[in-house]
Structure formats: structure tokens, C-alpha cells
Amino acid sequence: MELNLIYHMHCITSVIINCDILFSWVGIYLYLVTVNKILTNFKSNAQL
């Protein structure tokens, strides 16, 4: 019983860690996309 509970907690922890990693990658990706859009807009405005 005790062992089962520990295993279950370990699984939940792993899932949470994986979600954290996934969310940080999504955050980095969105940040890069936003920066890229701003830079593109800035360049096209500078050319006008």
C-alpha cells in the first residue's frame, strides 16, 4: 500500500515536471515568434 502511494506520487511528479518543460518550450517559442514579428515590422517601417 505504502509503496503504491509512493509510486503514484512519483508518476504525478514526473507528469508535472514534463508539463513544466513543455510549457517553458512553448513560452520560449512564442517569445521568439513575437520578437521576430516585431523585428520584421521594425525593418519594414525603417525601409519606408
From TrEMBL:
Transmembrane feature ranges: 6-33
Record bears the keyword Transmembrane: yes
Source organism, top-level taxon: Eukaryota
Keywords from the UniProt entry: Membrane, Transmembrane, Transmembrane helix
Protein name per the record: Uncharacterized protein
